[in-house]
Amino acid sequence: MMSGRQVRVLVADDEPLSLSLACSTIAVDPRLVVAAQCNNGQSVLDALAKNDVDVAVLDINMPRVDGLALSQLLAREQSSPEIVFVTAHSQHALEAFDLGVSDYVTKPYDGDRLRRAVLRAAARRHAQAQGTSLAPMEKLLVRSRTGTHLLAFSEIELIDADEKEVWIQANDRRFRYSSTISAMERMLPCPPFVRTHRSHIVNLDHVSVLNDANNGTGAITLKSGAVSPISRRYRRRLSALFFARP
Amino acid sequence: MRVDDWRWWSLAILPAFIVLTALIEMPGVISGLLLQREAAPALLMLQYAECWLYWTALAPLMFWFMCRFPVEGSCWIKRALLHVAATVGFVASHLALHAATDFTRIVTDEYAFVERLTALLRYSAPTEVITFLMIDGAFHAVRFSARARWAAERERELLHLKTVAELEALRRRLQPHFLFNALNSLCAMLPERDNARQMATRLSDYLRLTLNRASKEMVSLREEMALLHAYLEVESVRHGDRLATRFSISEDVLDAPTPVLVLQPLVENAVKFATAGVEDVGEVTLDAHRRNGALVLRVTNSISDGAPPTGENQGHAIIRERLAANYGAGAALRTDRSGGRYVAEITLPLEARA
Fold first, then answer.
1. pLDDT for res B38
2. Quick check: A18 and B185 CB within 8 A?
3. At A121, which helix (H) or strand (E)?
4. A213 and B184 in contact by Cβ < 8 A?
5. What is the pTM of this model?
């Protein structure tokens, strides 16, 4: 992907079934490769010393050194991998985010959910390695016929794509931007930005009405009146985010 | 409890004695004044009040005894006998106090003292016994009624605690992480695109939402919709293409407070009747929008021709009761069947209750 090579993933879980599930789920995506499998916290530390790892997918409940302690240890290291927690305990979520982990996936998970978490974590690490800035980007430079504009992310309502470029809708105008919808999805924070369709990304802060349908005929209406279709593939995640936001 | 505390009783009896003294002795004082034109009525009154003041002096000991040995429980006969003995004891002490003050007053005249003592024993003792028994009786009456009220309250409290404890026990018995780990292992044994894996994941989403819920009476519509969405996702896997679910939700009502699970029975009904037809695709639609300053929640389901008649049931009655309890006349549930659809619509006031 961005660095032209596969994302190297370490997976740690003390339950063999759970470990093999995580590994096979990750291996489905050709952009990802499982570089190490561990069944306890100590072996994670050993594996990290030997292998170059971009993202560590850690179970929280492991014997000896658990996931939370592990992430604390790793946070002190210079080139530590990004961490994605996978756990049955949803009550650790806040603690995990305090530790600065990339993502938190609850068991059992959809394969897509875990892969997306790993890919986003890898993108975050890549951005940091490039020195792009630790602070997340919040503005976008776009061109229109009248000149260039600096768009704040919060102004962006909708992004839709055709084969060659993407169109950004903001402040009742449309701006052309040369990128791909997948690259935009990786760049924009989620939430509030969420993919609704193969060629659409919506900012949940601008949503007026959600029309979710389990047969793929749903649509989302924005406060500006614009309508974006919702495809089957993205609808569950979209409604989960729509109803989960505080 | 304060009715078990002799100190509270000793203090409480003071005003009672003062009122009693006034009521009982006042006629005597007034008639004395009118007939004999005696001077210094206040002093006279004090003298008459003496009898009650002695009871006040004895009150702490008396109430300590009554609180310590009330006539109740399995040994009530023994206690009753003890109270008879105590009656004798307290009346004797009361008379002795009388006699002692008399003695200080009439110390010079030994004969008068003996005569006075005999008179006290003969004429006052029966009244004294009745007085003591009255106090004893009043004590028990007040104590029992207070206890009965307290017991009723306690029972209500216990019932509530029991319900809470039962729910808590249920939640604990479920051991969420055990459940989710088990379902995850199940997923590991199934191919990725398998329906069973989907079912396990969606069921977990639903369970997680129900387990994470605090036992609140009101939740935001957002929370309610998240749960219903997860519920319908599970039902969608169950019924496959035969069930089409739709949500149409305005973003601006998501924070509105809603009675917890108020829509759940309606949605369950809707799924049941939408899928009751044999061939057709059943549809269940949930709408939540603002209308004339009110929140309108609508559950619609299609009814196929061959389906049995749908009507209102216990679930509707319970929803109506809850709405009435929460909003009075401000909320309503209406149902309507027409054109192959069944609609249940709840209207809630959007503004916070007073």
1. 56
2. yes
3. helix A111-129
4. no
5. 0.64
